[in-house]
């Protein structure tokens, strides 16, 4: 949740602030940098080590050049290669194992079996990575000067000379590191975030002007083409050779917590494109993943940073929240209204309205009294529902003897807060007034955090999960603002939306008050006056690193990265804020959200032993998915935000944070009936499904409009029927890093017409979702991968799609989202989706099989208790269809209590003369055949999924 005063989303707005930082002591001319020469090479059975020495006079472009570097190349597995370039003095900051643990050094040699090969030139030093396998020997990553343009490249941003590329040698200084690689002109880049990219999910490097991915966590409400909450310097690159119809993917990951810019661009008239890294600290620690499939790249990245945490089955239910539930009674009313409307509600949330004086770990004694909270949450639990509250990053500073606030008192006693350089507590400002911030590097912080969460729960807020907000970390004053301040002042530093004098008056997008009247409750037909596209409008409003280095400008690094807020300390901790051991925030800023998520996960494991923690965090970093999920932040109630949500969800699959979703119906501004209708349908097919909006805006709970309520009931019913599929997809993510949500081209990598598609997506490999993303339309164009060689069937009618040239116009009346099942799929489902996931899981199973043209299908289902962490027992069920029979088998020690009682088999070309189950013929009343859709429906069976193999034949 974000305040409203800083909508600096456009690059042109923030460049004035960023480029105003002057650094007269440095030349800032990287074309003068001499690069390095390699010597003292030592090879081992796992790779090599060598020294790099500056090849000429130091250029000192944005800092002081290191004379000597060390390069270590390690073949870590057959598919992962590490290239680490660091200063030989070990002064630069590196991410410690205590924050992100990595796999142990290889015990065997992969140098001769690795699919990746490290090649180098000694002077000037350059390296390139090639494949051992495949027909294409073109380098995957190439820093040779001969592969790069000889002439300077114009600015990426017109008028911003700092974005011009005028030198490509390796630069390694104490405050500036630069490395450049060539890319094929027609390559496809995905990832690098967190970002809402105007070019779409594909980061097309050939677009005019190129793009910049800035790495600096900041509190900003979903700006376009600018940095905001999270930082993930990893990209997935896909190359397609049309001549031989060959496609291969690989990944590149820079393991660094430093701020920086990653430039993607194509020089004018060039035959290749470029990626250039410009970092303001740390080292150059690269990991390369060989793929060769996109899914394999994502899995290999997960194997390095940590696979996603196990998600309990209840978290796949529908979640309801808003900023603005002023009391417990109002919160309870939402639960009651949802049940009265028969719209399934799994989890109820509270925003900062819950707090007493906006303070973490509290509930207001008047509006949210503790014992009444306890009774409410226990009533939810008795109805198989759950409760999640918010936690903000800033902890209120309370020193007045009459102001008893234990979280601060105890934290001060244990010395767990971030400091100023003079060792006093760093003071920020947030909703409760003056705040301090947990220092996740301090020895006692984990103990303190766990105690605070326990005390909160013991006091009545018996949470099932935790929502981590503002954790970039956000602060409303710049720098430590405690000096001379009245720290007893607990007034809110800004006026909240919805407060008298600060309304949210804007009409919903496309609203025409002259037609509909100013009711704020738009009707569907004839009231929308905008076109089908809409613009998103921003709000008006190993070494210790720099902490131990001399001559470092901590407050204003000489190279000004393109941070959307300009000054790096604006709206967050100052860069000289000091953590335990002398670490300064400049080096670790981007990891604050990750470390809070990790601490919260470990705390919940202690407080709720044996249960899978549910944590949703705003700021993320590589390995965050091991501890938490993510929501896409403070979006807008616009059609463009609806579209952008797909891009964000696809992006976070690459980052191995698959449990992700948007604020359904939009957070900022006022939604309308049609937008909310379409958005509730879309979100029913994404991992994290929550409706949430801002204080002062119109209410948007799905029961508010009849059409939205109807659409929600239908979509959630489908979602709950598909829970076994969701659980299976996320089990694969937790065990192997396999992404649950996929771009179409992941499954069809040799179809270039799919490479830019981000208006549709796949759930797993088998369910294609084609949402409506524009207003006032009743049909949608869908592309159907496979070029006619794959059968796609309508999920509702089971009819085969007739796609001309791979596309079809699909009927999409309000309340209907197009969903299709892929030929060859076999999906285990809940036969009777109910009001909660627990009730749905208690009912019998059904099976939906969609035979491909050759009469084959295959599917698996992972089943466990949905709660235990780690899973104590599990069972894998396998469905395999060939010719006219379906075999069902399983393995594992989890006992499945429910039986498989119904089967639907699509693609049965002729009516069977008989149907048998387990060798026994079924009565004709237990099966039926629909010739128009070639559908065989079987009921009256009771297949034990724990037993021996069962055969269904027809």
UniProtKB/TrEMBL annotation:
Q: Which residue numbers delimit the Glycosyl hydrolase family 31 C-terminal domain?
A: 737-826
Keyword entries, A-Z: Glycoprotein, Glycosidase, Hydrolase, Signal
Question: Where does the record place the Glycoside hydrolase family 31 TIM barrel domain?
Answer: 309-729
**Is the Glycoprotein keyword given for this protein?**
yes
Signal peptide (UniProt feature, chain positions): 1-20
Could you state one GO biological process linked to this protein? carbohydrate metabolic process
Q: Which Pfam families match?
A: Glyco_hydro_31_2nd, Glyco_hydro_31_3rd
* Molecular function GO labels: carbohydrate binding; hydrolase activity, hydrolyzing O-glycosyl compounds
Coiled-coil boundaries: none
Q: Which family does it belong to?
A: Belongs to the glycosyl hydrolase 31 family.
| Name of this chain's protein | Alpha-glucosidase
Supply the source organism for this entry: Collybiopsis confluens
